[in-house]
Amino acid sequence: MSKHKRASKLFESSLVREALKQSVSKLNPRKMVHNPVMFTVEIGTFIMAAVCIWIMAGEKSQGSLGYNFAIFIILLLTLLFANFAEALAEARGKAQAQSLRKTREETHAKLIQPVGEIFVNEVKVVPSSKLRKNDVFLCESGDIIPMDGEIIEGIATIDESAITGESAPVIRESGGDKSSVTGGTKVLSDKIKVRVTTEPGESFLDKMIALVEGASRQKTPNEIALTILLATFTLIFIIVCVTLKPFADYANTPITIAAFVSLFVCLIPTTIGGLLSAIGIAGMDRALRANVITKSGKAVETAGDLDTLLLDKTGTITIGNRKATNFWPATGVDANVFIEACVLASLADETPEGKSIVELGQVKGIKAPVMKKEAVTYVQFTAETRSSGIDLDGQKIRKGAYDAIRNIVIRGGKNFPPATEERVNLISSNGGTPLVVSQNDQVLGVIELQDIIKPGIHERFERLRKMGVKTVMVTGDNRLTAKYIAEKAGVDDFIAEARPEDKMNYIRHEQQNGKLVAMMGDGTNDAPALAQADVGVAMNSGTQAAKEAGNMVDLDNDPTKLIEVVEIGKQLLMTRGTLTTFSIANDVAKYFAIVPALFIASIPSLQALNVMNLHSPESAILSAVVFNAIIIPLLIPLALKGVSYKPIGAKALLRRNLFIYGLGGIIIPFFGIKLIDLIVTMFIA
Amino acid sequence: MNTEILGVLVTLLLCFLLAYPLGKYIANVFLGKPTFTDFMLPLERFIYRVSGIDPKKGMDWKQFLKAMLTINMLWFVYAFLLLCFQGSLPLNPDGNANQSPDLAFNTAISFLVNCNLQHYSGESGLSYFTQLFVITFLQFVTAATGIACLVALFNGFKEKTTNNLGNFWVYLVQSTTRILLPLSIVVAVILAFNGTPASFDGKDSILTLQGDSVQVSRGPAAGMIAIKQLGTNGGGWFGVNSAHPLENPNYLTNIVEIISIVVIPIALVFSLGFYLQRRKLARVIFAVMTVMFIAFCTINIYYEMKGNPAIDKMGIAQNGSMEGKEVRLGAAATALWSVATTSTSNGSVNGMHDSLTPMSGAVIILDMMINALYGGVGVGLLNYFIFLMIAVFISGLMVGRTPEFLGHKVEAREVKITALVTLLSAFLIKGGTALAAYFYAHHPEMAWAVQPGNWLNNPSYHGFTEMLYEFTSANANNGSGFEGLADNNIFWNVSTGIVLILARYLPIIGPIAIVGLLAKKKYVPDSAGTLEVDSYTFGLMTIAVIIIINALSYFPALALGPIAEFFNQ
């Protein structure tokens, strides 16, 4: 299945158009005030507009109208660029969510009315929008499920490809942990009764869209802290610019308003200030692209901090279920005879293990013989006998766990062969499950079932370890088997013979030690642990309770998704940190551009600081402001895609980012401003 | 090798060698481990009993700060009253008069904040009684206050989660009895044997070579000079501070006094390592401070030894720029002192800073703006902690985690306090200088005792530097002056007085509050993804943060003052 099938181009034209429109309407100061850095830029823009009018009215001391107007336009562009970044991130997130929501457009719903017009429990066809929470509707094969809900009666195969992209149908039934159905998916067979679990407009997707749109978007704790830091820098530069006026008076240097405003706007961290909210939205959007719905921006942020991941063995670390890997005949038993017996005993066994025995038998060249139905009695597995098998021509072939078969054998007055007993122990200690097969109370041999560890999972755990994330495998297996698989897969710890409360206890224990824990779950009995975990990812197929308890919902029901979620969180935080560094480092070059320009008239010797050899004071100031403006759109792709995360350890990561964004942030603007100055000079001259 | 430079190297080497064991000793004192000064215990117990202190009682950060601020207020009242009435008090052989209330106010504040912005001359402005029981007393206890507050910071990171930052009173007493007092005695003895006066006799009179009779001030100076250096206070016994031949008689005492300036601040960095058992962290902090300190020294020594280009132009040979320097000490030793004293908020001088070449002037101003390269006793590391918080916040994000420091998450509240303290310096220095520049430029005729137009000895860039220096020095609680500024008048007394108080207490309250908040939080153990604050990469980040924040805040001011002067010479 392709995970990023919905990945769209960064600058899709329809999104860009929408974003452009939005970036103008976001100029409204009432919206702007939430971003202190950009709000001060807006004030600067207003001041420049006033200065332009003042000059038109005849003021002579502030330089030419063209120059002042140019500064005004560039400041306006700076604002629009920043708004555009945010708007584009919003538009992308919204488009992403809409594409999921489209699947649940108006359909017909077969509402079951407890008291109908004619009958009790009368079925009436209504538009899906009329459904309310706790209504019950009926879905038969071929119907589109009109609304998210929980199956209260029946079982059905459902095509969920509209949501997950996975074409194979899935089975959903009432009662268990797989009772949730999603609006927009299609029932392929059978009939189910579903209770609506959300009011219209309140599904997770609706909430997510609201989060992205900004209406209910709240700043995350780290975003707030960073905003405070950026506001501090802004205040420092207010002090710098305000005090510059008396300093300049002392030095008998007139400084134009345009120069003051330009210096200020260049120095404050507009780059990160303009991109900050876009980075946050893009984080949620990236999660959505990985088919994970986040209920808050904070959850994504927390994901970057996770210390411990609780992973279910089945489906995450191993592929589905155990498979037969070997037949071990007892001493004196012919291999082919034994394998045939195994295949016969498993013919009626519909479990994946049973099927795999038949498959392995075929591989070994033993086909199931054609049998007359009347001569055969299948013996089903029961909790009492803990074995299953077949009665054929007076032969009783039984297959079951070691102690179950042992009981049968001993009751039949036979001995359990020691060689086989040894084999049984060996298989157990290698992480396998032994199934013993007997014929007429005589042990024939052992079938070895093994968990198949997912290819590549070892590398992923290695990657997580380098990130500093501990992985814990949760399994119902016994300690011995669990230990073997844990070692083979490379997880750091495991919980064997796990009951739901064990997960909860483990999470509590880790949290008491100050660790942040994530887990994935689907069942109602997972709900408390999902709520307790710092990041709880519920599978979309899971129960409503599980989905309510977690703070993320995975549409793909893919347990490995946790790993991706961690990386998305780290990317989000790193993008913030690196762009802050870059933004502040940029100021060095801007100082070297503007300060000599301010004092060229009164202190010509300060031209020694004009290391970029910029053409004139006006061109120097214009170049700095232009650079300051265009760096924002240039960094939009980085802000939206996120800085790539490499699990190379914190120290190396810091060194790398410090080098690229710190040193790069100091050097790049020197060249950028010089280049712009050359271009600007061509127009002036 | 040039003997002057050799002298500098020997001084620095000695200093580092002494600081390491001293740091270990200080950590042991506060950890309550047995030390050779345990004979002080009965005295300490006596003090606790008399003052009704329960030495075992811990304090949370609010109680700790309350205790600190309360005793500071008492000291202020005490100092103010004694200065006002010193004329009628004993130990006044020269018959010096009472200080006027406004001068007494200024002096009391100045020494209360461990600064030495002296608007009087020690010889005539103070009696022996006030020198000893006001000035010297405050030099001890304010330095001890700094150390006590630093130990509170240590305690915040000692336990995984704690409310207890220790007992302020105990740390205050122990800082005095175990650290400042013993070291002062050693230094005072060395000084006394080298000719610094230590008597209660009044002025002596000598006959000069010209045949004039000259009155020479004396007094119990050696002890006071020892603590003014060790406690990073800097207020001299004599008006010209350690440039005075009796305050700093020879090269040996000069070495001793320079070491005394920086040895405790450096030792406290090592103490952090021993106290928290994070020696690598201490090493990285020491490296960061030392790299910048040595860089500053190198620049100053280079420019001071190079001499004044104006004199070169006249074709006159010179052995370094000797204007305002003592011949017995030389250009290099004075340059080293200038960096040491500005790094540590000490403020004592052995040569006139006004006469330094422009680039050296820029360096020492920048040094005071940073005010955390070793820094004042105790408070230096508290200042450094603020830069550390900013570095932690940004680099924490850069490694893909929400920022944390030594296992505690740094969140909005801590950032807010960090922001306030960072803003404060920029606001006080630039705001003050701007105010002065404004009066000078727009109201030179103001009807003050000294009209703003007459404030500056040197107009132009150098005059600007003088004003910038005065506020920077006040903000750093440094106290040294770029003399040539007429600072004993209402504008400067009041404005620098306000700056002194704010710049002393807020940068102590801020870090202690942050530590108190952090210490209460749940402890987050380290993992492979955690930012390593004890790595040299992070050290580099800290240097970058220190330079960038200060450069960004002060570049225009420095450009208009010393840098413009430098390019114009």
From TrEMBL, chain A:
Protein family (similarity comment): Belongs to the cation transport ATPase (P-type) (TC 3.A.3) family. Type IA subfamily.
Domain spans labelled P-type ATPase A: 122-213
Active site, per annotation: 312 (4-aspartylphosphate intermediate)
Location(s), subcellular: Cell membrane; Membrane
Binding site for Mg(2+): 522, 526
A cellular component term, taken from the record's GO annotations: plasma membrane
Enzyme class: translocase
GO molecular function, one term: P-type potassium transmembrane transporter activity
CDD domains reported for this sequence: P-type_ATPase_K (cd02078)
Protein name listed in UniProt: Potassium-transporting ATPase ATP-binding subunit
Biological role: Part of the high-affinity ATP-driven potassium transport (or Kdp) system, which catalyzes the hydrolysis of ATP coupled with the electrogenic transport of potassium into the cytoplasm. This subunit is responsible for energy coupling to the transport system and for the release of the potassium ions to the cytoplasm.
Lineage of the species this protein comes from: Bacteria, Pseudomonadati, Bacteroidota, Chitinophagia, Chitinophagales
SUPFAM superfamilies the record matches: Calcium ATPase, transduction domain A, Calcium ATPase, transmembrane domain M, HAD-like
Gene3D superfamilies in the cross-refs: Calcium-transporting ATPase, cytoplasmic domain N, Calcium-transporting ATPase, cytoplasmic transduction domain A, HAD superfamily/HAD-like
One Pfam family of this chain: E1-E2_ATPase
Complexes and interactors: The system is composed of three essential subunits: KdpA, KdpB and KdpC.
Segments traversing the membrane: 36-57, 69-89, 224-245, 257-279, 591-609, 621-640, 660-684
EC number per UniProt: 7.2.2.6
Alphabetized UniProt keyword annotations: ATP-binding, Cell membrane, Ion transport, Magnesium, Membrane, Metal-binding, Nucleotide-binding, Phosphoprotein, Potassium, Potassium transport, Translocase, Transmembrane, Transmembrane helix, Transport
From TrEMBL, chain B:
Keywords carried by this UniProt record: Cell membrane, Ion transport, Membrane, Potassium, Potassium transport, Transmembrane, Transmembrane helix, Transport
Pfam name, any one: KdpA
Compartment(s): Cell membrane
Main location: membrane
Lipid bilayer topology: Multi-pass membrane protein
MF terms in GO: P-type potassium transmembrane transporter activity; potassium ion binding
Gene Ontology CC annotations of this record: plasma membrane
Family assignment from sequence similarity: Belongs to the KdpA family.
Complex formation: The system is composed of three essential subunits: KdpA, KdpB and KdpC.
Protein role: Part of the high-affinity ATP-driven potassium transport (or Kdp) system, which catalyzes the hydrolysis of ATP coupled with the electrogenic transport of potassium into the cytoplasm. This subunit binds the extracellular potassium ions and delivers the ions to the membrane domain of KdpB through an intramembrane tunnel.
Stated name of the protein: Potassium-transporting ATPase potassium-binding subunit
Biological source species: Flavihumibacter solisilvae
